[in-house]
Amino acid sequence: MLRLVLVVASGLLLSLAFEPVAWPVVLPLAVAGFFLAVHGRRARAGFGLGLAFGASFYLTHIWWMRAVAVSAWIGLSALETFFYGLTGAAVALLTSAAPTRRWWPLWASAAWVALEMLRSTWPFSGMPWGRLAFATVDTPVARLLPWIGMVGVSLVLALAAALLAHLALTRARSWRADAAGLGLVAAATAAAVLAPYDPGTPEGTVTVAAVQGDVPGPGNDILFDHRQVTLNHVEETERLAEAAAAGEVPQPDLVVWPENSTAVDPFLDVQTRAGIERAVAAAGVPVLVGAIVDDGPDHVLNQGIVWDPETGPGERYTKWHPVPYGEYIPFRQYVDFNFGELARIRRDMRAGSRTEPLEVAGARLADAICFDVAYDDGIHAQVREGADLLTVQTSNATFIFTDQVDQQFAITRLRALEAGKWLVVASTNGLTGIIDPDGEVVETVERRTTASVVAEVGLHRGASPGIVLTPWVTLGVQLATVLGLLLVLLARVRSRRGAPQVDEASA
């Protein structure tokens, strides 16, 4: 019962590390509580304790999912809770068997991150919300991001928590090893703060504007009056052009519109296309338009389209990670999902796979659409192929009255820091802003307003060490976890084979 109370309290405590509370100092304590509770237990008990931890954390962490539906909040939380159950079982095994027990903080932290990455990518596209690294905005630990990436930072935090748990379990009898490990974590963090990652001299600059048109009506329904949403962006772009012509703001080289700035296909809808072309003509520069584009009778694409004032629509980025049961229905061909909120999803959104940056206004853009920003793969692939500027097109209208907006904006800031590049984020009604390579917000506007921001940004080529290392760190923790569990399994098999046999006749 004490262990159960401990994991529930630890899960709730971990949720306080993220927005809206954002107390990252509690993160290692919360994860250490998890490790303390499952340490040395049997796998089944570890699984149950992991479930309790996951439920208390995730139901709190994504409380905002109720804005979609209560069933979505409970269903997604239950799925993610299952992975914390697996984490509990894995850590229980790794801390109770001889082959891995001595160095269990290393094995357990690798298992935590391996399972964190598994739930962030599977099933379907997974759910990355709640990764430990996402709680580090405005902390010294965040300075490690360009050096070791999101996966590496999660590993450092998990290891620090495991060492704290080990100190508590041994009552400091073996404090030297734990202190040395914690000292290394602190030293690495201090080094990153004192000698921060330098992305180098920019190879050029561009002046970028991000437009936030706002959403009419209740503000949380992008389809309430989708034509007015598009018109808001058209008119704000025209006002921006007038202000630039009057010298009130710098003349932009590129304008970024958010996701869902058009909710109908601009190639088929005459009114929508006319509005876009009017805005692009007024700006006199390319506009990155967020649009829903038809892809046959049963599918749509969520795209960022480079719309040039002279040549019209050109290169496109398609969202990598459509939301299952939110933007498409898995297994629709086998099950009729025409009920409840799912009945609103009449056509499935296809996923994109573009890795080449968008060439526009002399810049090479790594684009991300909404939840894409929480995934490593799409952004990292574009950066490795030469992107020198990051853009995020998002529509947080559904969640505008929730903490999801703040959580996503924190992740967005961390992405700029991880890549060591400027980042421009455009949202339909919040939060829109421009972020520098240190993750600092240099321009922003209030949510639920019609406004735009303009800034000159540097173009930094090359991938940070953290982005280069991420696939290898991910593979390393996965292999370490599998190896550790195999060692435990082999030890148990040998133990059973070596057990004394009972002579049934003599018995």
From TrEMBL:
GO biological process, one term: lipoprotein biosynthetic process
Chief location bin: membrane
Membrane-topology descriptor: Multi-pass membrane protein
S-adenosyl-L-methionine keyword on record: no
Annotated GO CC locations: plasma membrane
Listed HAMAP family: Lnt
Name listed for the protein in its UniProt record: Unannotated protein
Source species: freshwater metagenome
